[in-house]
Amino acid sequence: MKQTATEWLFEKLWETPKDKLTWNAILEQAKEMEKQQMKDATLDNVTTNKGLRKIFENQFEQYFSETYGYKEI
Question: Which domain holds residue 53?
Fold first, then answer.
């Protein structure tokens, strides 16, 4: 079973010694994981046609960038 970005973030924050905690790096990594999970959930089983899949991927990237304000992983 896959781990969600939220579960990973909690685990990472819990396990990392507080004197070595780099909040920004951990947060950015969690955001990347969340985006990839959203992308996978959106595009899984959409189509096997590579051309159509690329169009859907581009639409997802545009939506994600406009909605959440950060770009490709």
Answer: 5-14+21-68
Asked if the structure places residue 73 within a domain, the reply is no
**Do the Cβ atoms of 13 and 21 come closer than 8 Å?**
yes
Single-letter amino acid, residue 61: E
Provide the whole-model pTM: 0.68
Indicate the number of domains in the chain.
1
3-state DSSP: the chain helix, strand, coil percent, rounded to 5? 75, 0, 25
Task: Tell me, yes or no, whether 52 lies in a domain.
Answer: yes
Tens digit of pLDDT for each residue in 6-64?
888 888 888 888 777 787 888 888 889 999 999 988 888 787 888 888 999 999 999 88
